[in-house]
Amino acid sequence: MSSPEFFSEARRLGLKLNLSGEGSSPVHTLDNEALFQLPLLAMTILAISKGQSKPQLPEIGQLVGECLERTVAGFKGSSQDIGWSGNLRIRTIKALTFLESTGLVTIDEVTRRIASTDLGKKVYNDAVKGESLLSLSMKTVELSYQYIRDEAQARGEVN
Asked: Phi then psi for 106, rounded to 5 degrees?
């Protein structure tokens, strides 16, 4: 049955959907598959490259993995260590390539540090306004990145 036939038959039978619009919508959480979606990875890169401490190109895959591991409830305290996932690193580079080609980030040729452009910061800030799940997750990613940098600095690994 085609969709026009379906709707014609529904009209003929007088079928209607009663949607009250009352009550709360189900809360959707980020699952493991969401970790490998390019928009989420791109937003994570924008989140960690917009502050004062810019990530270096060789460490971006590991940092994205660590930030998501600390942010997504299913990975907190997990032994999976997604920062070392080859699939995640490949997709992170694809997301970074997209961000660079659209002018949302730049990579310094000398220091190899990734920085959000003004446009990238604007896109990121507009996307995380409010109290959506994305907004809360990205704010947690920002905090996770800061904690990672602080921990590395305490170990003497950050200049």
From this structure: -125, 155
CB burial of 87-116 (b: ≥16 within 10 Å; e: otherwise) equals ebbebbeebbebbbeeebbbbeeeeebbbb
Domains of the chain, each with CATH number or no CATH: 30-154 (1.10.10)
CB contact burial 37-62 (16+ within 10 A = b; e otherwise): eeebbbbbbbbbbbeeebbeeebbbb
49 CB contacts (<8 Å, ≥6 apart)? Answer: 55, 105, 114, 115, 116, 120
Q: Can you give the pTM of this predicted structure?
A: 0.72
Average pLDDT (92-110) is 93
How is residue 129 written in tokens?
């306004």
Percentage of the residues of the chain whose pLDDT score is greater than 90: 38
